[in-house]
Amino acid sequence: MWMEHNQLRDKKKGLYNLIENYNTMSFQDFKKQLGETAKSLSGFLSSHIFKENNILFPTAQRVVTEQEWRNARREFDEIGYCSFTPEHLIAIPEVKDVERQKAEALAVPEGILQFETGTLSKEEVEAVLNTLPVDITFVDKEDAVKYFSKAEKRIFVRTKAVIGRKVQLCHPQKSVHIVNKILEAFKTGKKDVAEFWIQKGNRLIHIRYFAVRDKDGKYLGTMEVTQDLTDIKKIEGEKRLLDWEG
Predict the structure, then answer these.
(1) For the chain, which terminal residue's Cβ has fewer other Cβ atoms within 10 angstroms, N or C?
(2) d(CA 180, CA 199)
(3) Is 162 among the domain residues?
(4) 8 Å CB contact between 167 and 179
């Protein structure tokens, strides 16, 4: 279904491109291509929706537990819904179930974390990571997503549902071979860094992967760091004075 989403996106891009360049071809050619593209998109979309309604959703209703639905609802409330969010669905009532009560009972301070260069509480560590001007995701040595930071303005959306999931399942099928190539190079010690940069709308996004190792060089996992470079690239000269207003 995810692959079909990518295919649908490509078909829509083709339609937009055709319309934007209509004046570069004869009307008859434009009319023919427009009809073929629209027909292909319509048929593909109808097939996709049929699979959702008759296979995906019924199966989900059978296998997803009530608690998992509640968790999914909370995640949707946080990141938004497809196309629009009805006002009465923005927030959900508090659920006082056994699992939640247990979680609240266990929510006690874990003390201080001792590092080589100082000490921090769990709350301070989390606040520091979330304050960094980058998105961070950590994948453990078994390729499972173990952690991601929650910056105020994330570049790419993440939900808690990815925790514990194999990182290969968090990428489009067409790029999984690249993910595996990076992980293999990190695990064998051949490489320590891999980087990419892409355009996301009018923003330049820098994506870097770092091999995380202990003091002895043992592979512990991979850290993904994503940063918006758009405004940084505009910096010139020097700025030595504070220019706050008021």
Answers:
(1) C
(2) 23
(3) yes
(4) yes
Per residue in 11-26, pLDDT (tens digit) is: 999 999 999 999 999 9
Structural domain includes residue 92: no
| Residue 102 covered by a domain | no
Quote the CA–CA distance of 36 and 18 in Å, as a whole number: 11
pLDDT of residue 94: 53
* pTM as predicted: 0.72
User: In angstroms, rounded to a whole number, what is the distance separating the alpha carbons of residues 139 and 6?
Assistant: 24
* Rounded distance between C-alpha atoms, residue 94 and residue 85, angstroms: 19
Determine, yes or no, domain membership for 210. Answer: yes
Q: How confident is the model at residue 209 (pLDDT cuts 50, 70, 90)?
A: very high
User: Rounded to 5 degrees, what angle do the CA atoms 12, 228, 238 make?
Assistant: 145
Q: What is d(CA 24, CA 20) in angstroms, rounded to the nearest whole number?
A: 9
Predicted confidence (pLDDT) per residue in 173-187, tens digit: 889 999 999 999 999
Counting Cα atoms < 13 Å in the Cβ hemisphere of 35 gives: 6
Per-chain mean pLDDT for the chain: 88
SS3 12: helix
